[in-house]
Amino acid sequence: MNGTIRANVKPGLEVNIVLKQDQRTGKLTKGVVKELLTNSPNHPHGIKVRLTDGQVGRVKEILTNP
């Protein structure tokens, strides 16, 4: 699913995000969404989220269906 649309991203979903320091390499980090940090309805680089482990990044893919 598309991680650029805020309505698709909800707390509790398992997602792959790209961390700020990994933006050049595109390395993905898997985790569970704790909260959404982007307020706009969509973002071209992905919705910014905080994972349950505290890491912050932009959603590249949603792994579980809501």
Provide structural commentary:
- This protein has one domain: Roll (SH3 type barrels).
- It is 0% helix and 39% strand.
- A hairpin with a 4-residue loop joins strand 3 (48-51) and strand 4.
- The protein is globular, with a radius of gyration of 10 Å.
- It has a four-stranded antiparallel beta barrel with strand order 1-2-3-4.
- With 66 residues, the chain is mostly beta strands.
- The chain has strands at 14-19, 28-36, 48-51, 56-62.
The general outline is globular
Task: Report how far apart the termini are.
Answer: 10 Å
Largest sheet: 4 strands, antiparallel, barrel
Query: In the CATH hierarchy, what is the class?
Result: Mainly Beta
- Count of individual helical segments: 0
Trace the largest sheet across and list its strands: 1-2-3-4
- Under CATH, the topology can be stated as SH3 type barrels
Q: Total number of β-strand segments?
A: 4
Given helix and strand content, the structural type is: mainly beta
Quickly give the CATH architecture: Roll
Detail the poorly predicted runs.
none
Radius of gyration: 10 Å
H-E string: EEEE
Overall pLDDT level: 94
The gist of it:
This is YwbE family protein. The protein is mainly β and 66 residues long.
Keywords:
66 residues; mainly beta; SH3 type barrels; globular; DUF2196; YwbE family protein
Q: What does the secondary structure layout of this molecule look like, with pairings?
A:
Elements: E1 14-19, E2 28-36, E3 48-51, E4 56-62
Antiparallel strand pairs: 1-2, 1-4, 2-3, 3-4
Organism: Paenibacillus agaridevorans
Protein name: YwbE family protein
